[in-house]
Amino acid sequence: MVQDFVRIPILAVLLCVSTVISLAACGSSGETEGESSAEGSSSGQTELTLLRLGDLVKAEPIFSPIIESFEAENPDITVNFEAMAWDEATTKLKLLGAQGDLPDVTFVNIANGWDLAAEGYLMDLTELFESDETLSSEIPQSVIDIATTDDGAMYWIPSATGAFGLWYNKELFEQAGLDPESPPTTVEEMISYAQTITEETGVPGLGWGISATEDFAHVVESFYSSYTGEDIWSDKDKCFTFENNEENRELFAQALEEMAAITNDYGITQPNPVEYNPSGMRTLFRDGQMGMYLDGVWAVKELLTELDKGEESKFNTGLFPAGPAGSHPVMGCDGWAIPEACENKEEAWELIQCLMSSDNQTSHALQWGLLPILESEKGKEEFSGEYWDALIEQESTVAARPKDRNVAMIEQAVADGAQAAAMRSMTPDEAMDYMIDTVKANYNG
Amino acid sequence: MKKTKKKNVLPYIYLTPAVIIIIAIFAIPLINLLWYSFARVDLIGNFQNWVGLKNYEYLLTDDFAATLIRTLLWVIFGITGIFIVGTTLALALNKPIPGRGFFRTVIIIPWVIPHVFAGTMWSWVLNSSNGIVNIVLMNLGLIEQPISFLGQHLAFPTVVFIRIWKGVPFLVMSLLSALQTIPSDVEEAAKLDGAIGLKYFRHITLPLLRPVMVMSGTILMAWSFTIFDLVYVITGGGPLNVTELLSITIYKKAFINSDLGGAAAIAIFTMVFVSIIAFFLMKHNAKEEKQ
């Protein structure tokens, strides 16, 4: 009996030990895989891993044919394709970077890219990019500037770009007696057109969202750049460009005041803008419940049924409404990077060149909902719809989101401060001080 | 002598597997959390340097005080609402009413819906432009303009309401189980003594339900402190931080500010705070039961 009592706990301890051993065995199997991969390359076959952030179901049909043709042209290279959910990327990419395990060609977005670059996990691609005359002449200088740090380093080749523009409903323009071929070009015009639409049709003239999200931060940054002509964040000084510049501060205050007036005074928006993300109004716009709203190329896929009607389509785009310094919306600029720890950099660069070829880039852009960024793409039939004109033209005047590893924190501070100013719970000056103080308190250098 | 020693050792041997599991599941993450809270640690847990009590300095700021008060209000109003609605429903469903089985099943639905989906669903239902609630109210002519349920003034009561909706089923199920353990002769004896209606509830039902209520209340309190996704999906903590709870602050510190140390300090505080409240609640209940 006593023996039984002793036997049972010993059995339990043994079970625990065996669990630990089996877990350890799982860990060691990873090493075996790594070894086999290294063996693969020593036998003359180079294995590359290509990672795209986003949904695998969406990504695979785009990249499978590209990879197939690349492998056919380079029989000594095999490419394994992977996708990673956006939500997981922030922690997983950094973890892979720390372990030296980032895929050979990794798609990085701004939120993660600057952090990975600051940690030294990404290779500076400037020389490779500049040595490729075709590629470097194909990408507009404005986009190159967005993807390059103040000291001239480019850590990823821009591939997925988009910027805010103005989407408008031509039918509502006509009903309001406005010329549907002449969208507003300035902030004042946008407000005036919205007032006319609201008065003449009873439909809110402007869809407007001030929910403190990343999208709203981009709208605020776009207003800032359109009022001041500068990016909101100084990569060189690691601070806001209105922090030590009275003129910029004054102009930003004007921009914030105008945003507050749009929210509260003019009566041109849908009810309760605080509940809406700026781009979260696509459905209302699609259903004809607003005359105009600010959104980017990302809306194309969702409005495609209507846009495909060509000239009959009731939707069109205009440039982001200009401030005193012009029209300068911020551009989202994600792209292909090669990790510093990559053992096959040459092959990885070849793969990037293949991905960035005109046809492959067009396929990527169309199926994902991105801007055509290569000059050779812009005249293509695929981008001939009239709604593409402004979206493409906008590309040459874009501004940059903060080029900083703390970009998420900085943009949250911008969104929170600007929302408070828009709701008039802070004055523009208080909102700017809030942004500065919040960033200083949380900045991770 | 030898036998006694063997007997003394035996319980410890039995306990060993459980202790190993408890250490693995609870103690290691807790110790990890504790040392994070005294260090500068990045998002993936890379230790950078010791910072002493610096991460705890945030707990002395006005921002944190506002978030703590907001969270306490969320817990107090939420649990009070859950108890009022939950107790009423449990008492009703304990009666032999027609369709009792159906209602008992239906009432569980909010509990089994995942937080993220529940949050998304409510944000659609309460949406200013297309939300069914506003549409119905406007079609009935009860309001002229849509109500901004998720705006600055109503966002907090709205998320508290959703918390109540989500928490009621748990309490109903707990109380129903307890109500069914009350012997029918107690009820009959009480009725003979003239204890009916509220008097019966106050003097018979409530004391008998007290242990279950205290236990359920403690669990609901701990859950309320740690709920994140339900509120985050609906409001993201806004507008103007009016729905930012401790759990959302922890998330923002860790995943937006990449400050795992700061997030750990708030998490430790929350854990200690909830544990102290739970301890006193349980102690008070034990005392009451003794009396």
UniProtKB/TrEMBL annotation, chain B:
Cellular localization per UniProt: Cell membrane
Alphabetically ordered keywords of this record: Cell membrane, Membrane, Transmembrane, Transmembrane helix, Transport
Stored PROSITE patterns: ABC_TM1
InterPro entries linked: MetI-like, MetI-like_sf, UgpAE/MalFG_permease
Record field: transmembrane: 12-38, 72-93, 105-126, 146-165, 212-234, 260-282
Domain (ABC transmembrane type-1) ranges: 68-281
Membrane topology: Multi-pass membrane protein
Similarity comment text for this entry: Belongs to the binding-protein-dependent transport system permease family.
Name of the featured protein: Sugar ABC transporter permease
